[in-house]
Specification:
Elements: H1 10-22, E1 25-31, E2 37-50, E3 53-58, E4 63-65, E5 69-72, E6 75-76
Antiparallel strand pairs: 1-2, 1-5, 2-3, 3-4, 5-6
């Protein structure tokens, strides 16, 4: 994955921000820094910028680049709109 940051769509940012404001647990699909697919569930604590790259910090302390997020709950990130949904309906 390119180390260059790709700004996310402002409407998708609104989805992330609404979840953080509501302090509700969200299901997340994202790539880590090694380009591995990660699935998880947590509460978004805050958003911040480091070295001109936007991140969110989860309650667990994990930090995720916003341009690495594939999906939050049932909402796909526009950057990955054609990417398959790997969530489990179990």
């Amino acid at each position: 994955m390119s180390p260059d940051y790709t700004p996310i769509d402002c409407h998708f940012y609104d989805v992330l921000e609404a979840a953080a404001t509501q302090r509700r647990r969200v299901a997340l699909q994202y790539f880590n820094d090694l380009r591995q697919l990660c699935l998880g569930s947590d509460i978004i604590e805050t958003f911040f910028i480091r070295d001109k790259v936007e991140f969110m910090r989860l309650k667990s302390g994990e930090e995720i680049r916003l341009d690495h997020i594939i999906r939050i709950d049932d909402t796909p990130a526009p950057l990955y709109a054609d990417y398959p949904d790997f969530s489990c309906g179990c």
